Model the fold of this input.
Amino acid sequence: MEWGNIEKRIVNLKNAVEVAAVRSFLERFELSFDETVDYTLAFYREEGLVATGSLQGEVLRNIAIDETLQGAGLTSQVVSSLMSEAARRGQYHYFLYTKPDKAHLFNALGFQLVAQADSYAALLETGLGSIASYCRSLVTCTAHLPQGPRAALVVNCNPFTLGHQAVIAKAARENAAVIVLVVSEDKSLFPFEVRLKLIKEGLADYSNVAVVPGGKYIVSAATFPGYFTKGQQTVAAQTRLDATIFATRIAPELGITVRYVGDEPYCPVTNAYNQALQDILPAHGIGVKVMPRLAVEGEAISASRVRELIRQEQWEAVRLLVPDSTYRYLTSPEAVAVLAAIRQSNSRH
Done:
């Protein structure tokens, strides 16, 4: 396809030469190419790469325009082409992750700011659905909770352990109500629906606790891809952006005054996330309580420890670390596929 003297090409993501050209171009803008993207476009002028953009699920990313062509309408061409491809795939809501000083370029294209972590990153969106409608749905899901101070926790629970249960129980004792937001991204060995079920069963005795899906605005591929892809230099940007979205958009709508987190002796990304929460939430009137991990026989309980014991088939040791409801699931026919995946994987999440 020609646009003026610009040719648009679909990048073959299996072609090392084509990918290398995109990666080299992005380096000029201090952007890295993520090979997990679903679709990438490259715009050429006389065989020179002048613009690119990628699609990953509903996230438009790695959008870069040659300095000499900025302001010439090429940004619109890249964005509209990616949105058209997403729509062809059945996706009608779009996120765009960019630097704060570039956010204004996308406002004219219909994107609205979700939140930004100054000097780090900005998240914008357009299409069907919005963070406002997301917050309204959370308000509806938690309307039955008692009146009074509300606490929140964001958990993955891969799987739900006695450690998770202990932190949530403490929050429930110390607050009128607790909202547990479960990471919805299906990047864990335990599928989202299983994790949600185990958490609800493990907290069934607490009438002041609501367990709800975290959705796409909390620790998701849009707000926090670094949670699932280690070693990236973007961890600070992503953790602070996720914390800012929670502090400025979600917590005020739900009346949350404190967020509980477990301390993290093992995972540097989670440590960075905890630090971002402590840096950002108090400035918005939200307390942060870091709880020591529950320990068994001197060793902190962790989901990764449970998975390792499952791999080793040390079921008596597993039983000491998880609630009865989790253990029943693990020893049921329903868990066969999950257990097989655990035995074959060394995934941290």
Notes: DSSP finds twelve helices and 15 strands in the chain. The mean pLDDT is 90. The radius of gyration is 22 Å.
